[in-house]
């Protein structure tokens, strides 16, 4: 049977939130997009207050993409940040599947560079920046995994968020790792979640 390990991406394999850091990078290098950040800021507040869903938020947050050279910006962003990927990921023991809420237009490039086998993430229209489908987070991660990987055994699971990635951790038949400041902390799923 095929075996894989599952990894979250943001704050799990890198010490930052990819979408936020990319937006900051774009404001710095393409300052004419700054006016587009006001609606994004409002959407962040509404999303945090649960007035709008995170999927609705993601329909707004990358609306600046048509105004920048997207492919070049993404490549230069990873030229600057690829070295921040935690070294332990490069020594992974088996096939790796990244399951992340981050946008595909950002993670496709780092997948090519790091050579990990699978990528499940939030899909965005590359021309408009608008999310297509659901935001790939919490239980949506598990749904998408089962949709794309039938009959595959999940061994180990890695994430920085015990709260949001409980559904992902529940798939582990091997070990669960909580990532804190880049360090892997193994824990027992049943004890941690009282199951």
Characterization of this structure:
- With 195 residues, the protein is an alpha/beta fold.
- It has 8 helices and 6 strands, in the order E-H-H-H-H-E-H-E-H-E-H-E-E-H.
- The protein has helices at residues 18-29, 37-48, 54-58, 70-81, 104-114, 139-148, 166-169, 189-192, and strands at residues 3-7, 95-103, 118-122, 153-159, 176-180, 183-187.
- It has a 6-stranded mixed sheet.
- Helix 4 (70-81) crosses helix 5 (104-114).
- The longest helix has 12 residues, at 18-29.
- The radius of gyration is 17 Å and the shape is globular.
N-to-C CA distance: 27 Å
Q: Tally of extended strands?
A: 6
What Rg is obtained from the alpha carbons, in whole angstroms?
A: 17 Å
| Percent of residues in beta strands | 15-25%
Instruction: State the major sheet.
Output: 6 strands, mixed
Q: Give the overall silhouette.
A: globular
Mean pLDDT: 94
**SSE order, as H and E?**
EHHHHEHEHEHEEH
* Lateral strand order in the biggest sheet: 3-2-1-4-5-6
In which range does the helix fraction lie? 25-40%
What is the count of helical runs? 8
Which structural category fits the helices and strands?
alpha/beta
Poorly predicted regions: none
